[in-house]
Amino acid sequence: MRSDLANDILRLTAQHLLLVLSAMAVAILLGVPAGILLTRRPVFRKWLLGFASVMQTIPSLALFGFLIPIPLIGGIGPRTVIVSLVLYALLPILRNTFVGIVNVDAAVVESAVAMGMTDAQVLRQVQLPLAEQTILAGIRVATVTTIGTATIAAAIGGGGLGVFIFRGLASVDSTQILAGAVPAALLALMADWGLGWIERRLSPA
After folding, report:
1. Distances from the Cα of 47 to the Cα of 59, 98, 177, 188, angstroms
2. Residue 69: helix, strand or coil by DSSP?
3. CB atoms near residue 73 (< 10 Å)
4. Which of 85, 84, 77, 70 lies closest to 155 in space, CA to CA?
5. Whole-number Å distance between alpha carbons of 180 and 12
6. Residue 17 C-alpha from the chain's centroid
7. What is the pLDDT of residues 123-149, one digit of tens each?
């Protein structure tokens, strides 16, 4: 029995990690370029930041309900869960990328321009390296939040550690609940510690 439980924990932890890693990969690929766009095209700031803010305020189960009927991205299963997690993770990544770049010392940017750098070179060689700690802080927040939110995936057949939690709540079985809650909490703590360590490494001495 214990062997079966251990195997289930490993299997569902792997599912949970796959959901989180998939969602974070997409969120970073969308959020960082969008944050850069906001620094170059101010007209989009209100709309993009507003959209990301609204997405984060919608309760998880309600967002699942909105997405399930939508063709291609909806339905029951991991696909809808990943789309939801991406929408939740966008705001901190988008906002921190924008804030990190616009807060780079104007004198440093002006010096780079005076040296003949193009806008793309200033971004790549000056602004992004100086903003990377702030950007990573946004990714760290998004990752930890996504690990927690992914436990709701089981509600629509998305798998992950939430399967134990929902199963335990339905049967009033604290062992099942802990089998899902403890690994999820450990994953969040490990992600927070690991990304925090990288942040400190990037911090100027």
Report:
1. 21, 14, 40, 31
2. coil
3. 13
4. 77
5. 9
6. 12
7. 999 999 999 999 999 999 999 999 999
Q: Which residue, 132, 130, 139, 155, is CA-closest to 192?
A: 139
Q: What's the CA gap between 38 and 47, in Å, rounded?
A: 10
Close Cβ partners of 17 (under 8 Å, ≥ 6 residues apart): 187
Structure tokens, 4: 């079966």
Q: What share of the chain is helix, strand, coil (3-state, %, to 5)?
A: 85, 0, 15
Cβ(36)–Cβ(123) below 8 Å:
yes
- Concatenated DSSP letters of 92-124: HHHHHHHHHHHTS-HHHHHHHHHTT--HHHHII
pLDDT in tens, 146-187: 999 999 988 888 889 999 999 998 888 898 999 999 999 999
Distance in angstroms (rounded) separating the CA atoms of residues 92 and 134: 10
Contact yes or no for 86/19 (Cβ under 8 A): no
Buried b (16+ CB within 10 A) or exposed e, 179-194: bbbebbeebbeebeee
List of long-range contacts for 59-67, beta carbons under 8 Å, 24+ apart: 60/84, 60/88, 60/149, 60/152, 61/152, 61/155, 63/87, 63/88, 64/152, 64/155, 64/156
Closest listed residue to residue 134, CA positions, set 108, 164, 97: 97
